[in-house]
Amino acid sequence: MSVYVAPGERGRGVGRLLYGELLPLVRGLGYVSVFAGITLPNDASVGFHEAFGLTPVGVYRNVGFKHNKWRDVGWWQLTFTDPPDQPAEPRPWTPPDLT
Asked: So what's the pLDDT on residue 3?
């Protein structure tokens, strides 16, 4: 999962607002876990995800080339519930009518 916030909007709570809506929605659809990949180093993104309860689960080394340097990508996970023996398909999401 990810959300991208325009540089001029960062630090204003937009990401927190979006994740605050997204996480309960995804959980309610029946997903067991969510995952976030973060290009490292990125202390702000790591802190943001950990504030929502995601924990580090692994790192892919030297998998991306960004800003003229090879970068690692760290993976964070939030598990909503223990995996069931026989999982059901997640429920479909229907966008709300905004009219």
From this structure: 87
Instruction: Give the domain range for residue 60.
Output: 7-79
Q: For residue 52, give the nearest of 87, 17, 10, 84 by alpha carbon.
A: 17
Q: What is the pLDDT of residue 2?
A: 85
Q: Which of 10, 20, 11, 9 is nearest to 1 (CA)?
A: 20
Residue 89 falls inside a structural domain: no
CA angle 85, 86, 90 (to 5 degrees): 120
Task: Give the Å distances, CA to CA, from 13 to 5, 9, 10, 18, 43.
Answer: 10, 8, 7, 9, 17
Q: What's the token pair of residue 19?
A: 């994740």
What pLDDT was estimated at residue 97? 86
